[in-house]
């Protein structure tokens, strides 16, 4: 197979499939970051969302119920971070790490307790999210895959400009950013920082849960243990790389989605799966190294 054949329209479809769960989770992390809560619990929220979506879709045999269950599960799970960090003044990093560990154990336990299986749960009764093709537009070469997405795929892409408008062109966005940057000053203006921070964390959990639903019901139609497989951590890095800006988050998520898709396709060249699967995480590490260098230069310039 020619290396250039990797870059075709099918690659774009693969990139979009890999992009959507990461983008949804990263947008949630961005909202929490804007409110002053650094949410590294996206991995656990994403994983809880995958399990809830599959379980609800299986019992209801309806993908809409599964999506709503994934969103609700992510939101409820985020209450741990919201209550602990906002109202009890706990360390959000410690809380989020504990949540990520809890999510792995809890979903593995529930998989056995509810479905009596270990590792993978796959059943024809699970209703997957359909692909909505926009006639004519979906047949355009190269950009056609942008018009053949799941409902959550369209939602994720629409949220980018929508959240930009909310954050930078509405009073709600101004108050949210004020709470994250100057909570005491916001409080003197009559804004309740705790309410905004809790709402941001809940929104973060809901979007991460939707990302989990897309991963489990849109990309594949099954649940596997530790299914999030580091995508939540990649979403955290996307937020950091983009400095919590919606357009930047899209660009960062697109970078990681491309790394994931190209890694999978490189298996056709005989590369080991373990090596190609590491692609997104290698990119993540490189981004973190570059960010640390940029931060060091900025700090040295500020101290000079």
From TrEMBL:
TM ranges: 12-32, 44-61, 67-86, 93-115, 142-167, 233-258, 278-295
InterPro entries xref list: ABC_transp_permease (IPR001851)
Major localization listed first in the record, in broad terms: membrane
UniProt-annotated location(s): Cell membrane
Keyword annotations of the record: Cell membrane, Membrane, Transmembrane, Transmembrane helix
Keyword Transmembrane helix: yes
Membrane topology: Multi-pass membrane protein
Domain of life: Bacteria
Entry keyword Transmembrane: yes
Protein name as it appears in the record: ABC transporter permease
Species per Swiss-Prot/TrEMBL record: Leucobacter allii
């Amino acid at each position: 197979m020619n290396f250039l054949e990797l870059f075709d329209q099918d690659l774009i479809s693969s990139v979009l499939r890999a992009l959507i769960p990461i983008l949804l989770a990263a947008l949630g992390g961005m909202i929490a970051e804007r409110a002053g809560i650094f949410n590294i619990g996206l991995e656990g929220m994403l994983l809880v969302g995958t399990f809830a979506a599959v379980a609800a879709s299986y019992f209801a045999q309806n993908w809409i119920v599964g999506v709503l269950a994934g969103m609700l599960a992510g939101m409820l799970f985020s209450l741990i971070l919201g209550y602990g960090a906002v109202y009890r003044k706990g360390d959000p990093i410690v809380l989020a790490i504990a949540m990520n560990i809890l999510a792995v154990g809890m979903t593995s336990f529930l998989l056995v307790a509810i479905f009596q299986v270990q590792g993978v749960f796959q059943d024809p009764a699970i209703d997957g999210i359909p692909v909505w093709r926009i006639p004519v537009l979906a047949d355009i070469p190269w950009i056609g895959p942008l018009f053949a997405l799941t409902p959550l795929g369209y939602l994720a892409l629409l949220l980018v400009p929508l959240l930009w408008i909310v954050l930078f062109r509405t009073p709600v966005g101004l108050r949210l950013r004020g709470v994250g940057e100057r909570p005491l000053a916001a409080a003197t203006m009559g804004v309740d920082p705790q309410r905004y921070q809790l709402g941001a964390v809940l929104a973060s959990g809901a979007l991460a849960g939707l990302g989990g639903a897309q991963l489990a019901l849109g990309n594949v139609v099954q649940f596997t243990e530790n299914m999030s497989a580091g995508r939540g951590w990649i979403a955290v890095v996307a937020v950091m790389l983009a400095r919590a800006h919606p357009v930047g988050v899209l660009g960062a998520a697109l970078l990681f989605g491309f790394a994931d898709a190209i890694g999978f396709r490189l298996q056709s060249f005989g590369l080991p799966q373990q090596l190609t699967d590491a692609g997104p995480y290698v990119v993540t590490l490189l981004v973190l190294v570059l960010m640390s260098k940029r931060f060091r230069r900025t700090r040295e310039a500020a101290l000079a």
